[in-house]
Amino acid sequence: MERILPFLSVLSRRRFLGTAGAVTLAMASRPAAAEAEPVSMHGENVTLTVNGRRHALDLDPRVTLLDALREHLGLTGTKKGCDQGQCGACTVIVNGQRINSCLTLAVMHAGDEITTIEGLEEDGNLHPMQAAFVRHDGLQCGYCTPGQICSAVALLAEHNAGWPSYATADFATAPVLTDAEIAERMSGNICRCSAYANIVSAIREVAEGGRT
Amino acid sequence: MKPFRYERADSVASACASATEPTAKFIAGGTNLLDLMKLQIETPTHLVDIGPLPLAEIEETADGGLRIGARVTNSVLAADMRVRRRYPVLSQAILAGASTQLRNKATTGGNLLQRTRCSYFYDTTKPCNKRMPGSGCAALEGLNRMNAVIGVSRDCIAAHGSDMAVAMAALDARIETVAADGATRTIPIDALYRPPGNTPHIETVLAPGELIESVLLPPPPPGRQLYRKVRDRASYAFALVSVAVIVAREDDHVRAARVAFGGISYKPWRSAEAEAALVGAPVTQASFDAAGRAALQDARGYGSNDFKIPLARRTLRAVLADATGVI
Predict the structure, then answer these.
(1) pLDDT (tens digit, 9 = 90+) per residue, B12-33?
(2) What number is the ipTM of this complex?
(3) Cβ–Cβ of A163/B101 closer than 8 Å?
């Protein structure tokens, strides 16, 4: 088990600067109205299992899973886009299912198996979905890509489990993974460079069993 | 986000007891609550995480229905083969909402209790009687394209955002709750939501500490089930208008009909008026038009959302035509 001490984190300086900036802003814009009675808080101990490694953390309960990954564990592959569940850049896989890591608290994930983009490769080789995104140019700037790839990996598992989507015509049978199905199932991941066509072809290639 | 005390519930009884203070909240999926907490629209001082509780099963009931645990995720419920075969309108409605990432976290109970996406509820620089009682309603004369047209008041014209609840309204779902004193009750879904009146910040009949344990679906009614959602983009957008219908025909007449709308009211809007107009009527476009007129007779627009009234009528007509095979 690895204990991450916040003050040893490679991110501590950046975090300090970010916090200092936020304090300045908060003081400048602090409303005159009386604040409610402060709530006494204490840190919550939680052990997160990320990409197969266990990390014991002492966290403010307000820390989202996304911020725990990025700011406390240094796993910056997972991206913060909108921070409100609309863009999908923060998508990670928890117990086999993709979720928005920005809309869940880290302390709610004790005992869960969390997989981020950093955990997809095997023995130094890209995951087939990562390789397919590269081959198909499923990106331009790349900011949404870790979320897109985690989402796509989980999408295939959901499809293999027979899950339908809104694009599924007949709910009583297992759906066929058409391009319309892939597009609907990926609608939680936005790509502002609009690499959608190539993202769909990358996913289709992996779904069909490999390079076409 | 304001500070809060975080507590993992270890039993239903202790969860309810912990959440009786008015500033406490249950948290399950958290996809709506945490979003609102970041914006300080929700400022609970105490979060009771019901993640460790059971309540995540879908069970057959003795009468041929289903009991859905409050923590069953939207994804699991939509994919359940019993739901897909017997309540396809529910699977369709759930899959019409949000994204897979959100449905994987969002729960059955939380979906019912999600808060409005009225843009003025979210905009903390504007008045909103729901967010800040007594401050006024900025939507009334503002950009109210997404707002409600029926059942609301001049104090609040917010629309309920759920798709799932619209199908559940058509299916006569009942909500099973347990209170802090251990008392249980069953609430018809239509009675769960309080009309806004002059207290739009009080949205349901649930008491502090009262926990939704499960949702009961009676056996499916006869007829074809369909859900259609009209929205600004093809996926991952809230409804302008949505319609759930369950309609059975006998020869050339409608034998039985259930009609519920989404996007037009403070709650999933079951229309007894449309159903009464349909039952016994000939299966024709004219009958479907009449049902739409009956459903929206008490509706009124507030400017930008005037279009929702004819849109709701036309969507109902189209869904009924699909469900009955009328061209």
Answers:
(1) 999 999 999 999 999 999 999 9
(2) 0.97
(3) no
